[in-house]
Amino acid sequence: MWAILIIIVLSALVLFNLIRIMIFGKSIIKPDFERVDEIFSRKTGFTSQWNTWYGKSIYYILLTGLIIVTLILIYAMIS
Fold it and tell me: Other CB atoms closer than 10 Å to residue 51's CB: what's the count?
C-alpha cells in the first residue's frame, strides 16, 4: 500500500516538473533550458541544472517514458 502511494507521489512530482519545463521553456520538443533555469531560480531562489547535458538527457528520457506510457494506456483502452 505504501509503495503504491510513494509511486503515485513520485510520478506526480516528475509530471509536474516536466510540465513546468514545457511551460517555462515555451516548447515540448526543444525547450529553452537557459530560460527554464533563469525562471526557476527567480521564482524559488534555488538553482537548477536543466541547461546541462545531464539535465537535458534526463528531460528527454522522462519525456520519452511519458509518451510510451500514454501510448500504452491508449492502446489498452482501445482493445
Answer: 14
